[in-house]
Amino acid sequence: MLSLAVSALSFQNQMLRAPVKGSPKVLMQEAEAAPAPLAKSSSVPVLDKKKFGNMAGGALLTDIYVEGFRRLDSNAPYEEGPGDWATSTEPKNQADMIALAQKQNPVLGFWDPLNIISEDVSPETIGWFRHAEIKHGRVAMAAFVGYCLQYNGVVFPWNIQAPIGGGTSTFSAISFADIAAVGGPADQWDALPTLAKVQILLGVGFLEMWGETSVALELDGEKHYVKGGKPGYYPKFADRFPHPMPLNLWDPFGFTKKMTPERKEKALIAEVNNGRLAMIGIFSFIASSKGLVVPGTDTLGLTPYAGEIMAPFTTNDVSLPFVENMMSVVGKLGY
């Protein structure tokens, strides 16, 4: 299956690339070629956007995924070499993590009740957990702010859905205010049209996929976080898609460009601490909305939520595959 996917992407790549004299050499080889070790310094050519327009982004995006599939489908191992963890400045052992914990919170220090960071912990494990914490902290910060805004009725002043072309269609007009009127943020999610939920989940899935793409990280001069790269780093969008992507997900306005490495390190420590607090905050809101006693939030009078927090769909979404079976067990699993 992967071979077929690589072959299809390779064909698409050749169709996107115009045969212009002196154009950059395509580094992606045909999938049928004899497998060779994949050098960690593999790069993807960047076409001249003035010459090729948006097609340059399309060709580059194809190259990225051809190389990604080739790495998965090849019988040859990926060459790690000494430049991954041996030269990485990221924490790679228990001593490094103890030192980092002291910087992040001198009062609490190193606290590891699950003994995740043992004496023989691998650097890959450290990189994975650090990246997970940073990413979940960022999501929690957005969720906390979003919960506060949505709970207080702050909405966009337009429709989330309207009849196509202004005429009659199966899509009735639904405004953001209509969604906000149904109750708290969890009820608002349940009230979204099924297609809106699917679009959101697909968008999140795409962002997750792009953030984990090693080839995209290498184009920025970075490495994957389990290969000695920087946890929390997100690859750029610019000039890598067949249509304009004017802003990057991380630091879209370039506020951190002029920061010194020391200032960036201090800002990341602050971000981790804010993310930890936001994770506590958003879970406190959710728990209070389910009737649990949470000091600090149980007295706020949050709108009760009778639905299932962990179920992304409701009975309104049974048109989707598997949803009807999933809903048959919601609330019956004994917790």
List keywords for this structure.
335 residues, mainly alpha, Chlorophyll a-b binding protein, 2 domains, two-stranded antiparallel ribbon, globular
Task: Describe, in plain words, how this protein is organized in 3D.
It is built from eleven helices and two strands, in the order H-H-H-H-H-E-E-H-H-H-H-H-H. With 335 residues, the chain is mostly helical. The protein has a two-stranded antiparallel sheet. Helix 1 runs antiparallel to helix 3 (54-73) and helix 5 crosses helix 10. The longest helix is centred in the middle third of the chain and has 29 residues, at 123-151. The chain is globular and about 60 Å long. Mean pLDDT is 79; it is low at 1-43.
Write down the overall mean pLDDT: 79
Percent of sequence in beta strands:
under 5%
Q: State the assembly state of the protein chains.
A: single chain
CATH fold call of the largest domain: Chlorophyll a-b binding protein
Q: Helical element count?
A: 11
Number of domains: 2
Principal-axis shape equals: globular
- Number-wise, the strands total 2
Question: How does CATH name the architecture of the largest domain?
Answer: Orthogonal Bundle
Strand order of the largest sheet: 1-2
Classify the helix fraction into a percent range.
Answer: 40-55%
First-to-last CA distance: 40 Å
Could you name the ranges where pLDDT drops below 50 across 5 or more consecutive residues? 1-43
Name the helix and strand elements from N-terminus to C-terminus, one letter apiece.
HHHHHEEHHHHHH
Sheet of most strands: 2 strands, antiparallel
Rg is 24 Å
